[in-house]
Amino acid sequence: MAILGFLRDFPLHGYDLKNRVASLAGHVRPVADGTLYPTIKKLEDAQCLTRRTAPGSVAAPRHMLEITQDGTDQLRRWLRDPEAGFITDDNKWYVLLAFLHHLENPREQALVLARRREFLDQPAQLFFDEQGAPIPPERLESPFRKGLMQIHRSTNLTEIDWLDRQIGELNRRAGFTASR
Amino acid sequence: MAILGFLRDFPLHGYDLKNRVASLAGHVRPVADGTLYPTIKKLEDAQCLTRRTAPGSVAAPRHMLEITQDGTDQLRRWLRDPEAGFITDDNKWYVLLAFLHHLENPREQALVLARRREFLDQPAQLFFDEQGAPIPPERLESPFRKGLMQIHRSTNLTEIDWLDRQIGELNRRAGFTASR
DNA sequence: GTATTCTACCTCGGAGTCGATATATCTTGT
DNA sequence: ACAAGATATATCGACTCCGAGGTAGAATAC
Q1: Which residues of A38-61 are buried (b: 16+ CB within 10 A; e: fewer)?
Q2: Which of B43, B61, B63 has the alpha carbon at shortest distance from B51?
Q3: What is the mean pLDDT of chain A?
Q4: Cα→Cα distances B86→A30, A167, B151, Å
């Protein structure tokens, strides 16, 4: 998704793509060559991108990659109806968010945000005692677990706040375009 | 790490462990049977835990798992000197944090928190233009990317604040025990 | 001249994870 | 009496991903 998402902005070569994906995922989680290049080839085989060899501006020759219509369609399908992991896993969610603007319909964008919003709504029970009963933060002995739950709660509220404002904005815009 | 960390609190059987790990990791990212049971066996082979068959209190018989001294040592090694991913990947970091109290020396605990603190300090450049120059949040066209960077910044500050207070507290305590 | 470094691409083996499948027990509903 | 569902453990094949290694061109350092 990140490869097609970046290519949708402008054509790139593999090495450049690697650095962009690395700085996006998490913060700086490098993507291994052994992951990137086979994935590019897979997307090429699936007609999602085309390759054009260009002389390297700095060193060895590059393969400039361009997204195709099939690739754009595939990207939009992934964004419109993301797998569960893209909603529940923070890392994946942030990747999705980075490319959600490529889904052009504000109503569809709002629906995706709503899924995340719904997920964040369910109260997080992280720790349980011997009997399996949830332990509230104030009864946790470990200051790290206490901090973990505090941070978790605080960051969730921050994101929920943003989501609500954004969903409202998108629905307003969807209403405008529908009533025109 | 999560298996040994939970067992360090009290003995558990696999099924129970599965639910606890699931509710901890991320928030609710279920752990597959095919991951859990082979891992338990691997830890057993490595003498990190012992197994004792007990009649199932509700249904089928359980294998009650108990951590050994070797297991405790291994857990502490993982916590004391975590791999890079445990510092930079939010999901992994939160798992580590959930068990950091098993590292009993406050000085060692503070050192791990300091590594995370140092990582959070480096400013996040998530998006770049065609020339490779970083794009500041205010010049981003996508509201989702803008929100992404806002949320990222805000949650980072929240965690940094907590880390600083916690590191200070731990160092105070380390000073006390050293001067006694 | 030559070594090093950065750019740029690619492949292979191994490790880890998942989903499907299987088995068995006990409780609950019908 | 029987079916369904939760509990509980285990394995296997498929898949993904990474890390190590290799190739090569161009710039820079020594």
Answers
A1: ebbeebbeeebbebeeeeeeeeee
A2: B63
A3: 90
A4: 14, 33, 21
Task: State whether the beta carbon of A28 lies below 7 angstroms from any atom of strand C.
Answer: no
Single-letter residue type at A110: A
B12 CA to D7 C1', in Å? 14
> pLDDT tens digit string along A24-73?
876 667 889 999 999 999 999 999 999 998 876 777 788 999 999 999 99
Helix H segments across A10-122? 14-24, 33-45, 69-80, 84-88, 90-99, 106-121
What DSSP string runs through chain B?
-HHHHHHHHS-EEHHHHHHHHHHHSTTT-PPPHHHHHHHHHHHHHTTSEEEEEE--SSSS-EEEEEE-HHHHHHHHHHHHS--HHHHH-HHHHHHHHHHGGGS--HHHHHHHHHHHHHHHHSPP---B-TTSPBPPGGG-S-HHHHHHHHHHHHHHHHHHHHHHHHHHHHHHHHHHHHH-
Q: What whole-number percentage of chain A has pLDDT above 90? A: 66
Count of A-B CB contacts under 8 Å: 118
Q: Which token pair is B27?
A: 């928030």
Q: Alpha-carbon torsion A32, A33, A35, A39, what sign?
A: positive
Q: Is the minimum distance from the CB of B26 to strand C below 7 Å?
A: no
Nucleotides of D under 7 A from a protein CB: 5-13, 17-22, 24-27
Measured CA to C1', what is the nucleotide nearest A37? C10
Query: CA of B60 vs C1' of D2, distance in Å?
Result: 20
d(CA A41, CA B118): 37
pLDDT in tens, chain B (180 residues): 999 999 999 989 888 999 899 888 766 678 899 999 999 999 999 999 999 988 767 777 889 999 999 999 999 999 999 998 899 888 899 999 999 999 999 999 999 999 999 999 888 888 989 888 889 989 999 999 999 999 999 999 999 999 999 999 999 988 776 665
Residue numbers in B near A147 (CB within 8 A)? 97, 162, 166
